[in-house]
Amino acid sequence: MPTASPAAESPASARIGSDIDYDRFLDCIHCGLCTASCPTYLETGDENNGPRGRIYLMRAIVDGRLDLTPQVERHLDLCLDCRACETACPSGVQYGRLIEPFRASQRHADAAQGRAKNADWFHRLILYGLFPYALRMRLALLPAKLMQWLRIDRLMERLGLINLLPLRLRRMQRLLPKLKPGGPMLPEFLPAIGPKRARVALFTGCVADAVFRHTHWATARVLQQNGCEVVIPRAQVCCGAIHYHSGADTPALRMAQTNAATFDAASVDAVIVNVAGCGSMLKDYAHVAHELDPGNDELASRLGQFVSKVRDVSEFLAELGLVTPPGEIKLRAVYQDACHLVHAQRVREQPRDLLSKIPGLQVIPMMEPEICCGAAGSSNLTEPEMSDRLIERKLKNLLETNPHVIVTGNVGCSMQIQAALRAAGRDVWVAHPMELLDLSYRREKPPV
Ligand code: SF4
Ligand code: SF4
Asked: Model-level pTM?
């Protein structure tokens, strides 16, 4: 039975965060063991920008001992929701389940006062109107492709014309990777190669399908090589993370329901995801339903059945047992952990184990592999200063390994790292683990 805040009894029960299960705050014993794993603490050295400090601030607000002043709000806004503090915490504090509902509550309060942060043009047109729709994204990227092809983007950069764009559009333009032909849309069904071992459904998402479709193809081919029939439901939609994390509850819940109905989890052995951020959201659907529509047990149970089938592709292949990839890839690779894979889904060893099975591939360990690269959902657009500091730190650690290829299991990290490499004038291939496995199965040469 969730416990209410002591202050929730009072007429001020509408205060921000008062609907959070108070026991979650009490799990924190203030030991501080999480502090050194927190990127924003490491960068600022300010306890209020670390997990322990933020838990203290949120609890004090819920208790009515502290007002949500702009300064307090700043400490909380700066949190990347990377959840590194969760894997570091010996007390099992579910930090994500404190900061996420707290932020949702904060946004509801803002909206009630007519100052909703998610009502500006950027949220309405870009985050909600463009990113979650693969087709719109593909159409919007056509002029960008043309600009890249004609090198107009580089010219605009050189002449400083890019600086005429609003900051967030400028950052979006700089984040956009070199757009490759991703191949045709994946069909609705791909057969297993060799004896059938499983039937799986592939989640293709929105931005990932528009920008990284080649990774989806690689993932599907790797699954086929491992004896999997792959179904790719056409009616699937965005995972809803963009909406959920910015307080747009109704569309987030609608997307969760659509995906659960579309994937028909009972008909497959697993729903496969190759993007850490989407996988983390899909695995959280039952909790999201419980939070956004409390008391609707039928919905929570339906979403729970879907969640029980969701697997990151590396997690699934490790469970299934990888068919040994035959082709040699003689490269030095460095693997960097995506926060929503290692911290939110606790998938740490599986991608490394899969990569270690590729003949000739040398996987070099790096410093701080689990410290956020600064992509953090849309933080690279909304918190540019912290994002820049973190990617600088990440790039230094990555390049110290002198890699031919940087491997990561999340499109957000991939875009962030590629943009930093371009800005630094470094030409290093950035790939998903499935792209390397795919090359090995196909005995093809890597592009470096
Ligand atoms: S969140 Fe966990 S590690 Fe951090 S201070 Fe609280 S109990 Fe300690
Ligand atoms: S989620 Fe990440 S940034 Fe936020 S407090 Fe935890 S470790 Fe720090």
From this structure: 0.89
